[in-house]
Amino acid sequence: MDAERSNTDPIRLAVIIGSTREGRIGPAVARWFATHAQQHGAFELDVVDLLEVPLPHRIGGPSTPELEAWAARIDRADAFAVVTPEYNRGYPGALKHAIDLVVDEWQAKPVGFVTYGGVGRGLRAAEQLRQVFAELHVVALRDAVSLNRFGGEVDEAGWVCDRTGAPQAAKTLLARLEWWAAALRAARRETGYSL
């Protein structure tokens, strides 16, 4: 697929909402981040809400149309931004399941994190996800957006307050995603990537 794309094509950024829990604020945080990504201008966005994606319940079972659609969606992306809360010092099980369903489609692409939680700001979830994505040969970026949802950084509707440092963190993360996505896309096109 990379052979069909040029360096001037927009970077396909999949913004993945990792929580499926009742009362979640993930969709609002993802919309906020997607707004910044649109303003950045380098990206073609695919906002992926795991609550709305039909995924097979079993990993390693026979291929299904749902699994093939999921694999194609991940394969199309040049980069990922995972929007995730921290639940019980970790990330949601639904997110782990979605990640584990495919392997090759993730490889040699960058991932950034937009995390939220209490005082920990979702940072423990991001650190665990860095390990998971490293195993899949994904470049996990150091820069991230991390929010304390109870410290005045997120309003009652789940929208990120712009008076915080979050807008600048989003700009930095998007710049890093653009650079890594373009570099890795060119490398995949030129030499491919396989284990």
Please characterize this protein's 3D structure:
The chain is of the alpha/beta class and 195 residues long. It has one domain (12-190): Rossmann fold (3-Layer(aba) Sandwich), CATH 3.40.50.360. It is built from 5 helices and 5 strands, in the order βαβαβαβαβα. Helix 1 (26-40) crosses helix 5 (166-191). The longest helix has 26 residues, at 166-191. The mean pLDDT is 93.
Summarize it.
The chain is α/β, with parallel strands linked by helices and 195 residues long. The protein has helices at 26-40, 65-76, 93-100, 123-135, 166-191, and strands at residues 11-17, 43-49, 79-85, 110-117, 139-148.
List the helices and strands and how they pair.
Layout: E1 11-17, H1 26-40, E2 43-49, H2 65-76, E3 79-85, H3 93-100, E4 110-117, H4 123-135, E5 139-148, H5 166-191
Parallel strand pairs: 1-2, 1-3, 3-4, 4-5
Which short descriptors sum up this protein?
single chain, 195 residues, alpha/beta, Rossmann fold, 5-stranded parallel sheet, 5 helices, 20% strand, globular
- Estimate the global geometry from the Cα principal axes: globular
- Helical residue percent? 25-40%
For the CA atoms, what is the radius of gyration? Answer: 16 Å
- Individual helix count: 5
Poorly predicted ranges (pLDDT <50, ≥5 residues)? none
Q: Determine the strand fraction and express it as a percent band.
A: 15-25%
Q: What is the CATH architecture descriptor?
A: 3-Layer(aba) Sandwich
CATH topology: Rossmann fold
Q: What about the largest sheet?
A: 5 strands, parallel
> What is the class in the CATH system?
Alpha Beta
